[in-house]
Amino acid sequence: MQSILSIKNVSKTYASGFQALKSIDLEIRRGEIFALLGPNGAGKTTLIGIVCGIVKASSGTVTVDGHDNVRDYRGAREMIGLVPQELHTDSFETVWATCTFSRGLFGKPANPAFVEKVLKDVSLWDKKDSKIMTLSGGMKRRVLIAKALAHEPDILFLDEPTAGVDVELRKDMWEVVRALRAKGVTIILTTHYIEEAELMADRVGVINKGELILVEDKAELMRKLGKKQMTFELQQKLDAVPEALAPYKLALAADGRALTYTYEAQGEHRGVTRLVEELLRQNIRLKDIATTQSSLEDIFVDLVRKDG
Amino acid sequence: MNHRAVWAIYSFEMARTGRTLFQSIVSPVLSTSLYFVVFGAAIGSRIPEIEGVGYGSFIVPGLIMMTLLTQSVMNASFGIYFPRFVGTIFEILSAPVSALEITLGYVGAAATKSIILGLIILATAGFFVPLKIAHPLWMLAFLVFTSVTFSLLGFIIGLWAEGFEKLQIIPLLIITPLTFLGGSFYSINVLPPFWQAVSLANPIVYLVSGFRWSFYEVADVSLTVSVAMIAVFLVACLAIVWWFFKTGYKIKK
Predict the structure, then answer these.
(1) Which residues of A touch B248 (CB under 8 A)?
(2) Which residues sit opposite A261 in a β-bridge?
Protein backbone atom coordinates (compact mmCIF):
# COMPACT_ATOMS: atom_id res chain seq x y z
CA MET A 1 0.00 0.00 0.00
CA GLN A 2 1.16 3.56 -0.75
CA SER A 3 2.92 5.39 2.05
CA ILE A 4 1.63 8.82 3.12
CA LEU A 5 4.22 9.51 5.80
CA SER A 6 7.82 8.50 5.55
CA ILE A 7 10.19 8.83 8.51
CA LYS A 8 13.80 8.08 7.65
CA ASN A 9 16.73 7.81 10.03
CA VAL A 10 15.22 10.34 12.45
CA SER A 11 17.07 10.85 15.70
CA LYS A 12 16.80 13.41 18.46
CA THR A 13 19.22 14.38 21.19
CA TYR A 14 18.02 17.18 23.46
CA ALA A 15 20.29 19.99 24.60
CA SER A 16 20.57 18.20 27.96
CA GLY A 17 22.29 15.33 26.16
CA PHE A 18 19.31 13.00 26.54
CA GLN A 19 18.86 10.90 23.41
CA ALA A 20 15.09 10.65 22.96
CA LEU A 21 15.12 8.94 19.55
CA LYS A 22 17.72 6.68 17.94
CA SER A 23 17.49 6.46 14.16
CA ILE A 24 13.80 5.82 13.60
CA ASP A 25 12.56 4.51 10.25
CA LEU A 26 8.82 4.25 9.78
CA GLU A 27 6.39 4.25 6.86
CA ILE A 28 2.75 5.02 7.51
CA ARG A 29 0.30 3.72 4.92
CA ARG A 30 -2.40 5.91 3.44
CA GLY A 31 -5.73 5.46 5.19
CA GLU A 32 -4.57 3.19 8.00
CA ILE A 33 -4.93 3.49 11.74
CA PHE A 34 -1.46 3.10 13.19
CA ALA A 35 -1.05 2.66 16.94
CA LEU A 36 2.27 3.72 18.42
CA LEU A 37 2.74 2.02 21.75
CA GLY A 38 5.48 2.51 24.28
CA PRO A 39 6.05 3.12 27.96
CA ASN A 40 6.29 6.65 29.38
CA GLY A 41 9.40 8.45 28.12
CA ALA A 42 9.87 6.03 25.21
CA GLY A 43 9.94 8.87 22.63
CA LYS A 44 6.37 8.77 21.25
CA THR A 45 5.62 12.45 21.80
CA THR A 46 9.07 13.50 20.56
CA LEU A 47 8.50 11.57 17.34
CA ILE A 48 5.08 13.17 16.85
CA GLY A 49 6.61 16.58 17.67
CA ILE A 50 9.27 16.13 14.97
CA VAL A 51 6.73 15.14 12.31
CA CYS A 52 4.51 18.11 13.20
CA GLY A 53 7.33 20.67 13.29
CA ILE A 54 7.32 21.38 17.03
CA VAL A 55 10.58 19.60 17.77
CA LYS A 56 13.70 19.90 15.61
CA ALA A 57 15.16 16.55 14.61
CA SER A 58 18.90 16.09 15.20
CA SER A 59 19.11 14.09 11.97
CA GLY A 60 16.97 12.35 9.39
CA THR A 61 14.07 13.34 7.15
CA VAL A 62 10.30 13.32 7.35
CA THR A 63 8.26 13.34 4.15
CA VAL A 64 4.49 13.89 4.19
CA ASP A 65 2.89 12.80 0.94
CA GLY A 66 6.03 13.85 -0.92
CA HIS A 67 6.51 17.12 1.00
CA ASP A 68 9.71 17.35 3.05
CA ASN A 69 8.58 18.68 6.43
CA VAL A 70 11.47 21.15 6.68
CA ARG A 71 12.07 22.36 3.11
CA ASP A 72 8.37 22.25 2.13
CA TYR A 73 6.87 22.69 5.58
CA ARG A 74 3.72 24.35 4.30
CA GLY A 75 2.80 21.44 2.05
CA ALA A 76 3.59 18.97 4.84
CA ARG A 77 1.87 20.75 7.73
CA GLU A 78 -1.29 21.58 5.79
CA MET A 79 -2.00 17.87 5.71
CA ILE A 80 -1.53 17.22 9.42
CA GLY A 81 -3.87 17.70 12.34
CA LEU A 82 -2.42 17.30 15.83
CA VAL A 83 -4.26 16.54 19.06
CA PRO A 84 -1.62 16.92 21.78
CA GLN A 85 -1.44 14.92 24.94
CA GLU A 86 -1.64 17.92 27.28
CA LEU A 87 -4.85 19.93 27.43
CA HIS A 88 -3.38 23.12 25.94
CA THR A 89 -6.37 25.36 25.29
CA ASP A 90 -7.15 29.07 25.17
CA SER A 91 -9.18 29.26 28.37
CA PHE A 92 -10.78 32.63 27.62
CA GLU A 93 -11.88 31.78 24.07
CA THR A 94 -15.17 30.23 23.06
CA VAL A 95 -15.26 26.80 21.44
CA TRP A 96 -16.46 28.32 18.18
CA ALA A 97 -13.77 31.03 18.11
CA THR A 98 -10.94 28.62 18.80
CA CYS A 99 -12.08 26.20 16.06
CA THR A 100 -12.46 28.94 13.43
CA PHE A 101 -9.02 30.26 14.50
CA SER A 102 -7.47 26.83 13.80
CA ARG A 103 -9.08 26.70 10.39
CA GLY A 104 -7.74 30.14 9.48
CA LEU A 105 -4.29 29.36 10.87
CA PHE A 106 -4.01 26.40 8.50
CA GLY A 107 -4.93 28.62 5.55
CA LYS A 108 -8.43 27.27 4.97
CA PRO A 109 -11.23 29.67 3.93
CA ALA A 110 -14.00 30.26 6.47
CA ASN A 111 -16.64 27.54 6.34
CA PRO A 112 -19.12 27.82 9.23
CA ALA A 113 -21.13 24.81 7.98
CA PHE A 114 -18.05 22.58 8.15
CA VAL A 115 -17.04 23.78 11.63
CA GLU A 116 -20.64 23.20 12.76
CA LYS A 117 -20.47 19.62 11.48
CA VAL A 118 -17.17 18.98 13.27
CA LEU A 119 -18.57 20.31 16.55
CA LYS A 120 -21.68 18.16 16.15
CA ASP A 121 -19.52 15.10 15.41
CA VAL A 122 -17.65 15.53 18.69
CA SER A 123 -20.84 16.41 20.61
CA LEU A 124 -19.79 19.98 21.33
CA TRP A 125 -22.33 21.90 19.30
CA ASP A 126 -24.36 22.91 22.36
CA LYS A 127 -21.17 24.29 23.92
CA LYS A 128 -20.07 26.33 20.92
CA ASP A 129 -20.53 29.67 22.71
CA SER A 130 -19.06 28.50 26.02
CA LYS A 131 -15.66 29.68 27.14
CA ILE A 132 -13.22 26.79 27.17
CA MET A 133 -12.35 27.34 30.84
CA THR A 134 -15.92 26.42 31.79
CA LEU A 135 -15.62 22.96 30.15
CA SER A 136 -14.70 19.66 31.78
CA GLY A 137 -11.44 17.86 30.98
CA GLY A 138 -13.16 15.46 28.60
CA MET A 139 -14.79 18.33 26.76
CA LYS A 140 -11.48 20.18 26.48
CA ARG A 141 -10.03 17.05 24.92
CA ARG A 142 -12.85 17.11 22.38
CA VAL A 143 -12.21 20.80 21.72
CA LEU A 144 -8.63 19.86 20.79
CA ILE A 145 -9.92 17.15 18.46
CA ALA A 146 -12.38 19.60 16.89
CA LYS A 147 -9.59 22.15 16.39
CA ALA A 148 -7.44 19.56 14.64
CA LEU A 149 -10.35 18.43 12.44
CA ALA A 150 -11.47 21.99 11.66
CA HIS A 151 -8.78 22.35 9.01
CA GLU A 152 -9.61 19.08 7.25
CA PRO A 153 -6.33 17.17 7.74
CA ASP A 154 -5.38 14.09 5.72
CA ILE A 155 -3.32 12.76 8.62
CA LEU A 156 -4.47 13.02 12.22
CA PHE A 157 -2.12 12.55 15.15
CA LEU A 158 -3.87 11.62 18.36
CA ASP A 159 -1.43 11.69 21.27
CA GLU A 160 -3.17 9.89 24.13
CA PRO A 161 -6.60 11.12 22.95
CA THR A 162 -8.66 9.29 25.54
CA ALA A 163 -6.60 10.05 28.63
CA GLY A 164 -8.94 11.37 31.29
CA VAL A 165 -12.03 10.75 29.21
CA ASP A 166 -14.88 8.69 30.66
CA VAL A 167 -15.87 5.38 29.13
CA GLU A 168 -18.93 6.65 27.28
CA LEU A 169 -17.09 9.58 25.72
CA ARG A 170 -14.22 7.32 24.82
CA LYS A 171 -16.57 5.16 22.81
CA ASP A 172 -17.97 8.27 21.08
CA MET A 173 -14.44 9.31 20.18
CA TRP A 174 -13.63 5.99 18.65
CA GLU A 175 -16.77 6.35 16.57
CA VAL A 176 -15.39 9.67 15.31
CA VAL A 177 -12.05 7.99 14.55
CA ARG A 178 -13.79 5.18 12.64
CA ALA A 179 -15.82 7.71 10.63
CA LEU A 180 -12.63 9.61 9.78
CA ARG A 181 -10.90 6.47 8.63
CA ALA A 182 -13.91 5.68 6.47
CA LYS A 183 -13.36 9.07 4.82
CA GLY A 184 -9.77 8.17 4.08
CA VAL A 185 -8.03 10.07 6.89
CA THR A 186 -4.82 8.37 8.07
CA ILE A 187 -4.72 8.16 11.86
CA ILE A 188 -1.68 7.76 14.07
CA LEU A 189 -2.44 7.34 17.73
CA THR A 190 -0.62 6.74 20.94
CA THR A 191 -2.59 5.34 23.80
CA HIS A 192 -2.15 3.85 27.22
CA TYR A 193 -5.31 1.82 26.73
CA ILE A 194 -3.78 -0.98 24.71
CA GLU A 195 -7.14 -2.69 24.31
CA GLU A 196 -8.11 0.34 22.25
CA ALA A 197 -5.18 -0.17 19.92
CA GLU A 198 -6.19 -3.83 19.75
CA LEU A 199 -9.72 -2.78 18.85
CA MET A 200 -8.93 0.02 16.40
CA ALA A 201 -5.48 -0.29 14.85
CA ASP A 202 -4.54 -1.85 11.53
CA ARG A 203 -0.86 -1.85 12.42
CA VAL A 204 1.06 -1.48 15.63
CA GLY A 205 4.48 0.01 16.32
CA VAL A 206 6.24 -0.49 19.63
CA ILE A 207 8.79 2.11 20.69
CA ASN A 208 11.03 1.72 23.70
CA LYS A 209 13.97 3.85 24.88
CA GLY A 210 13.92 5.81 21.62
CA GLU A 211 14.02 2.75 19.38
CA LEU A 212 11.28 1.32 17.25
CA ILE A 213 11.52 -2.30 18.29
CA LEU A 214 8.65 -3.59 16.21
CA VAL A 215 6.23 -2.57 13.45
CA GLU A 216 3.71 -5.19 12.52
CA ASP A 217 0.27 -5.79 11.16
CA LYS A 218 -1.87 -6.11 14.27
CA ALA A 219 -3.49 -9.41 13.33
CA GLU A 220 -0.10 -10.80 12.28
CA LEU A 221 1.47 -9.63 15.54
CA MET A 222 -1.25 -11.27 17.57
CA ARG A 223 -0.80 -14.45 15.56
CA LYS A 224 2.99 -14.46 15.74
CA LEU A 225 3.61 -13.34 19.27
CA GLY A 226 0.37 -14.25 20.96
CA LYS A 227 0.45 -17.15 23.41
CA LYS A 228 -2.41 -19.53 24.05
CA GLN A 229 -3.14 -21.29 27.27
CA MET A 230 -5.23 -24.40 27.71
CA THR A 231 -6.47 -25.06 31.21
CA PHE A 232 -7.66 -28.54 32.17
CA GLU A 233 -9.97 -28.61 35.18
CA LEU A 234 -9.47 -31.93 36.93
CA GLN A 235 -11.99 -34.25 38.54
CA GLN A 236 -9.48 -35.35 41.17
CA LYS A 237 -6.86 -33.38 43.01
CA LEU A 238 -3.23 -33.92 41.90
CA ASP A 239 -0.27 -33.59 44.26
CA ALA A 240 2.32 -33.28 41.48
CA VAL A 241 2.52 -33.30 37.69
CA PRO A 242 3.27 -36.89 36.58
CA GLU A 243 6.78 -37.48 35.20
CA ALA A 244 5.42 -38.52 31.81
CA LEU A 245 3.91 -35.04 31.33
CA ALA A 246 7.17 -33.19 32.03
CA PRO A 247 7.89 -32.34 28.34
CA TYR A 248 4.69 -30.26 28.26
CA LYS A 249 5.86 -28.01 31.14
CA LEU A 250 2.40 -27.98 32.67
CA ALA A 251 1.63 -25.69 35.57
CA LEU A 252 -0.36 -27.20 38.42
CA ALA A 253 -2.79 -24.91 40.21
CA ALA A 254 -2.16 -24.32 43.93
CA ASP A 255 -5.24 -26.31 44.84
CA GLY A 256 -4.09 -29.18 42.60
CA ARG A 257 -7.34 -29.13 40.63
CA ALA A 258 -6.16 -27.61 37.34
CA LEU A 259 -3.31 -28.05 34.87
CA THR A 260 -2.32 -25.25 32.49
CA TYR A 261 -0.53 -25.81 29.19
CA THR A 262 1.04 -22.74 27.50
CA TYR A 263 1.95 -22.85 23.79
CA GLU A 264 2.77 -20.51 20.93
CA ALA A 265 -0.40 -19.44 19.13
CA GLN A 266 1.29 -19.70 15.73
CA GLY A 267 2.86 -23.12 16.33
CA GLU A 268 2.15 -25.74 13.69
CA HIS A 269 2.62 -28.68 16.05
CA ARG A 270 1.06 -27.69 19.29
CA GLY A 271 0.87 -31.19 20.72
CA VAL A 272 -2.63 -30.76 22.09
CA THR A 273 -3.84 -34.16 20.90
CA ARG A 274 -0.82 -35.95 22.28
CA LEU A 275 -1.14 -34.10 25.58
CA VAL A 276 -4.81 -35.09 25.97
CA GLU A 277 -3.94 -38.71 25.11
CA GLU A 278 -1.15 -38.66 27.69
CA LEU A 279 -3.46 -37.21 30.32
CA LEU A 280 -5.95 -40.00 29.72
CA ARG A 281 -3.14 -42.54 29.76
CA GLN A 282 -2.11 -41.20 33.15
CA ASN A 283 -5.68 -41.75 34.23
CA ILE A 284 -6.27 -38.08 34.82
CA ARG A 285 -9.97 -37.36 34.40
CA LEU A 286 -11.06 -34.00 33.06
CA LYS A 287 -13.97 -31.90 34.25
CA ASP A 288 -13.61 -29.02 31.80
CA ILE A 289 -11.22 -27.47 29.25
CA ALA A 290 -10.77 -23.74 28.63
CA THR A 291 -8.43 -21.83 26.29
CA THR A 292 -7.31 -18.21 26.53
CA GLN A 293 -5.20 -16.11 24.16
CA SER A 294 -2.84 -13.32 25.21
CA SER A 295 -3.97 -9.77 24.49
CA LEU A 296 -1.97 -7.07 22.71
CA GLU A 297 -1.24 -5.72 26.17
CA ASP A 298 0.43 -8.97 27.22
CA ILE A 299 2.46 -8.96 24.01
CA PHE A 300 3.44 -5.34 24.54
CA VAL A 301 4.52 -5.86 28.15
CA ASP A 302 6.47 -8.93 27.08
CA LEU A 303 8.28 -7.07 24.27
CA VAL A 304 9.22 -4.10 26.40
CA ARG A 305 10.43 -6.33 29.21
CA LYS A 306 12.63 -8.34 26.82
CA ASP A 307 13.98 -5.10 25.34
CA GLY A 308 14.69 -3.58 28.74
CA MET B 1 1.86 33.98 1.90
CA ASN B 2 -0.71 32.33 4.17
CA HIS B 3 -2.75 35.53 4.52
CA ARG B 4 -5.59 33.67 6.26
CA ALA B 5 -3.21 32.66 9.04
CA VAL B 6 -1.97 36.23 9.46
CA TRP B 7 -5.58 37.39 9.68
CA ALA B 8 -6.48 34.59 12.13
CA ILE B 9 -3.65 35.57 14.51
CA TYR B 10 -4.33 39.29 14.06
CA SER B 11 -8.05 39.03 14.74
CA PHE B 12 -7.46 36.63 17.66
CA GLU B 13 -5.16 39.21 19.26
CA MET B 14 -7.53 42.11 18.52
CA ALA B 15 -10.38 40.11 20.08
CA ARG B 16 -8.22 39.73 23.20
CA THR B 17 -7.96 43.53 23.37
CA GLY B 18 -11.73 43.73 23.03
CA ARG B 19 -12.13 41.39 26.00
CA THR B 20 -9.66 43.37 28.11
CA LEU B 21 -10.74 46.83 27.01
CA PHE B 22 -10.34 48.38 30.44
CA GLN B 23 -6.81 47.12 30.92
CA SER B 24 -5.70 47.63 27.30
CA ILE B 25 -7.20 51.01 26.47
CA VAL B 26 -9.09 52.71 29.30
CA SER B 27 -6.39 52.32 31.94
CA PRO B 28 -3.44 53.78 29.92
CA VAL B 29 -5.63 56.62 28.61
CA LEU B 30 -6.73 57.47 32.14
CA SER B 31 -3.22 57.40 33.63
CA THR B 32 -1.79 59.52 30.79
CA SER B 33 -4.67 61.99 31.23
CA LEU B 34 -3.63 62.39 34.85
CA TYR B 35 -0.22 63.63 33.65
CA PHE B 36 -1.98 66.18 31.44
CA VAL B 37 -4.07 67.35 34.38
CA VAL B 38 -1.20 67.54 36.88
CA PHE B 39 1.76 68.62 34.74
CA GLY B 40 -0.21 70.32 32.02
CA ALA B 41 -3.16 72.15 33.48
CA ALA B 42 -2.14 72.42 37.18
CA ILE B 43 1.67 72.76 37.55
CA GLY B 44 2.25 73.50 33.87
CA SER B 45 0.70 76.95 34.10
CA ARG B 46 3.49 77.98 36.53
CA ILE B 47 6.33 76.60 34.34
CA PRO B 48 7.71 78.95 31.65
CA GLU B 49 7.31 78.12 27.96
CA ILE B 50 9.96 75.91 26.37
CA GLU B 51 11.15 77.18 23.00
CA GLY B 52 7.90 79.08 22.56
CA VAL B 53 5.62 76.19 23.47
CA GLY B 54 3.49 76.17 26.67
CA TYR B 55 4.68 73.44 29.09
CA GLY B 56 1.34 71.61 29.04
CA SER B 57 1.46 71.37 25.25
CA PHE B 58 5.20 70.65 25.20
CA ILE B 59 4.89 67.40 27.17
CA VAL B 60 2.03 65.95 25.06
CA PRO B 61 4.23 64.25 22.39
CA GLY B 62 6.57 62.87 25.06
CA LEU B 63 3.69 61.46 27.09
CA ILE B 64 2.09 59.88 24.04
CA MET B 65 5.46 58.40 23.15
CA MET B 66 5.90 57.06 26.70
CA THR B 67 2.54 55.27 26.61
CA LEU B 68 3.20 54.07 23.08
CA LEU B 69 6.54 52.51 24.03
CA THR B 70 5.42 50.78 27.21
CA GLN B 71 2.09 49.58 25.82
CA SER B 72 3.63 48.30 22.56
CA VAL B 73 6.21 46.32 24.48
CA MET B 74 3.73 44.97 27.01
CA ASN B 75 1.03 44.05 24.49
CA ALA B 76 3.33 42.30 22.08
CA SER B 77 5.35 40.51 24.75
CA PHE B 78 2.24 39.20 26.49
CA GLY B 79 0.62 38.25 23.15
CA ILE B 80 3.35 35.74 22.29
CA TYR B 81 4.44 34.82 25.81
CA PHE B 82 0.98 33.69 26.93
CA PRO B 83 0.65 30.90 24.30
CA ARG B 84 4.17 29.77 25.25
CA PHE B 85 3.19 29.80 28.93
CA VAL B 86 -0.08 27.84 28.54
CA GLY B 87 1.26 25.60 25.76
CA THR B 88 -1.12 26.64 22.96
CA ILE B 89 1.98 27.69 20.96
CA PHE B 90 2.05 24.07 19.70
CA GLU B 91 -0.67 24.95 17.24
CA ILE B 92 1.18 27.95 15.81
CA LEU B 93 4.38 25.90 15.48
CA SER B 94 2.62 22.99 13.76
CA ALA B 95 0.67 25.25 11.35
CA PRO B 96 1.76 25.99 7.78
CA VAL B 97 2.87 29.51 8.68
CA SER B 98 6.23 31.21 8.26
CA ALA B 99 8.07 33.23 10.90
CA LEU B 100 7.18 36.36 8.93
CA GLU B 101 3.47 35.53 9.02
CA ILE B 102 3.51 34.79 12.76
CA THR B 103 5.35 38.07 13.37
CA LEU B 104 2.97 40.02 11.12
CA GLY B 105 -0.04 38.67 12.99
CA TYR B 106 1.21 39.29 16.53
CA VAL B 107 3.22 42.46 15.96
CA GLY B 108 0.58 43.89 13.60
CA ALA B 109 -2.09 43.47 16.28
CA ALA B 110 0.08 44.92 19.06
CA ALA B 111 1.07 47.89 16.89
CA THR B 112 -2.57 48.50 15.87
CA LYS B 113 -3.57 48.65 19.53
CA SER B 114 -0.77 51.12 20.27
CA ILE B 115 -1.69 53.35 17.32
CA ILE B 116 -5.36 53.40 18.42
CA LEU B 117 -4.22 54.13 21.97
CA GLY B 118 -1.90 56.94 20.79
CA LEU B 119 -4.68 58.58 18.79
CA ILE B 120 -7.14 58.35 21.71
CA ILE B 121 -4.57 59.92 24.06
CA LEU B 122 -3.89 62.64 21.50
CA ALA B 123 -7.62 63.40 21.28
CA THR B 124 -7.89 63.34 25.09
CA ALA B 125 -4.94 65.75 25.43
CA GLY B 126 -6.89 68.24 23.33
CA PHE B 127 -9.37 68.58 26.21
CA PHE B 128 -6.71 69.70 28.69
CA VAL B 129 -4.07 71.65 26.76
CA PRO B 130 -3.93 73.62 23.47
CA LEU B 131 -2.55 71.44 20.66
CA LYS B 132 -1.05 72.18 17.27
CA ILE B 133 0.14 69.55 14.80
CA ALA B 134 2.43 71.21 12.25
CA HIS B 135 3.14 68.05 10.21
CA PRO B 136 0.24 65.55 10.61
CA LEU B 137 1.72 63.04 8.15
CA TRP B 138 5.08 63.02 9.91
CA MET B 139 3.23 62.74 13.22
CA LEU B 140 1.38 59.66 11.93
CA ALA B 141 4.56 58.19 10.47
CA PHE B 142 6.36 58.51 13.84
CA LEU B 143 3.33 57.03 15.61
CA VAL B 144 3.17 54.04 13.27
CA PHE B 145 6.89 53.31 13.07
CA THR B 146 7.45 53.66 16.80
CA SER B 147 4.49 51.37 17.51
CA VAL B 148 5.75 48.75 15.06
CA THR B 149 9.36 48.93 16.28
CA PHE B 150 8.51 48.66 19.97
CA SER B 151 5.93 45.95 19.31
CA LEU B 152 8.76 44.04 17.65
CA LEU B 153 10.89 44.63 20.74
CA GLY B 154 8.02 43.36 22.90
CA PHE B 155 7.67 40.32 20.63
CA ILE B 156 11.37 39.56 21.15
CA ILE B 157 10.96 39.86 24.91
CA GLY B 158 7.92 37.56 24.77
CA LEU B 159 9.93 34.97 22.81
CA TRP B 160 12.86 35.24 25.20
CA ALA B 161 11.17 35.43 28.61
CA GLU B 162 10.78 32.31 30.71
CA GLY B 163 8.57 33.79 33.38
CA PHE B 164 6.27 36.70 34.06
CA GLU B 165 9.02 38.46 35.99
CA LYS B 166 11.35 38.56 32.99
CA LEU B 167 8.41 39.79 30.93
CA GLN B 168 8.12 42.84 33.19
CA ILE B 169 11.82 43.57 33.70
CA ILE B 170 12.58 45.33 30.41
CA PRO B 171 9.45 47.57 30.30
CA LEU B 172 9.78 48.53 33.97
CA LEU B 173 13.53 48.75 34.44
CA ILE B 174 14.69 49.95 31.04
CA ILE B 175 11.97 51.51 28.93
CA THR B 176 10.16 53.55 31.59
CA PRO B 177 13.38 55.10 33.02
CA LEU B 178 14.76 55.79 29.54
CA THR B 179 11.49 57.47 28.56
CA PHE B 180 11.51 59.66 31.67
CA LEU B 181 15.13 60.61 30.96
CA GLY B 182 14.55 60.83 27.21
CA GLY B 183 13.17 64.35 27.14
CA SER B 184 9.49 63.50 27.59
CA PHE B 185 9.11 66.21 30.23
CA TYR B 186 11.90 68.58 29.21
CA SER B 187 14.14 69.60 26.35
CA ILE B 188 17.59 68.05 26.75
CA ASN B 189 18.95 71.47 25.78
CA VAL B 190 18.22 72.64 29.34
CA LEU B 191 20.65 70.05 30.73
CA PRO B 192 24.34 70.76 31.47
CA PRO B 193 26.57 69.79 28.47
CA PHE B 194 27.78 66.55 30.13
CA TRP B 195 24.24 65.26 30.71
CA GLN B 196 23.23 66.39 27.22
CA ALA B 197 25.98 64.14 25.84
CA VAL B 198 24.85 61.27 28.09
CA SER B 199 21.24 61.78 26.97
CA LEU B 200 22.27 61.39 23.34
CA ALA B 201 23.11 57.76 24.15
CA ASN B 202 19.43 57.23 25.02
CA PRO B 203 17.63 56.12 21.84
CA ILE B 204 14.31 57.38 23.15
CA VAL B 205 15.57 60.98 22.96
CA TYR B 206 15.51 60.68 19.17
CA LEU B 207 11.97 59.27 19.09
CA VAL B 208 10.56 61.93 21.39
CA SER B 209 12.44 64.69 19.59
CA GLY B 210 11.23 63.65 16.14
CA PHE B 211 7.66 63.17 17.33
CA ARG B 212 7.66 66.56 19.06
CA TRP B 213 9.03 68.21 15.93
CA SER B 214 5.99 66.94 13.98
CA PHE B 215 3.80 68.86 16.46
CA TYR B 216 5.68 72.10 17.15
CA GLU B 217 8.69 72.10 14.82
CA VAL B 218 10.84 72.11 17.95
CA ALA B 219 13.50 69.40 18.20
CA ASP B 220 16.50 68.43 20.34
CA VAL B 221 18.17 66.61 17.44
CA SER B 222 17.69 66.87 13.70
CA LEU B 223 14.75 65.15 12.03
CA THR B 224 17.07 63.10 9.83
CA VAL B 225 18.87 61.67 12.86
CA SER B 226 15.52 60.83 14.51
CA VAL B 227 14.27 59.00 11.42
CA ALA B 228 17.59 57.19 11.00
CA MET B 229 17.50 56.05 14.64
CA ILE B 230 14.00 54.56 14.28
CA ALA B 231 15.07 52.83 11.07
CA VAL B 232 18.18 51.36 12.73
CA PHE B 233 16.16 50.16 15.70
CA LEU B 234 13.49 48.66 13.43
CA VAL B 235 16.05 46.77 11.35
CA ALA B 236 17.83 45.53 14.51
CA CYS B 237 14.56 44.19 15.96
CA LEU B 238 13.65 42.51 12.66
CA ALA B 239 17.07 40.85 12.55
CA ILE B 240 16.71 39.51 16.11
CA VAL B 241 13.20 38.14 15.41
CA TRP B 242 14.51 36.51 12.23
CA TRP B 243 17.35 34.90 14.21
CA PHE B 244 14.94 33.57 16.87
CA PHE B 245 12.85 31.79 14.26
CA LYS B 246 15.79 30.64 12.17
CA THR B 247 17.48 28.96 15.11
CA GLY B 248 14.28 28.03 16.94
CA TYR B 249 15.94 29.49 20.08
CA LYS B 250 13.50 29.26 23.02
CA ILE B 251 10.74 28.34 20.56
CA LYS B 252 11.47 24.79 19.44
CA LYS B 253 12.91 22.03 21.54
Answers:
(1) 56
(2) A230
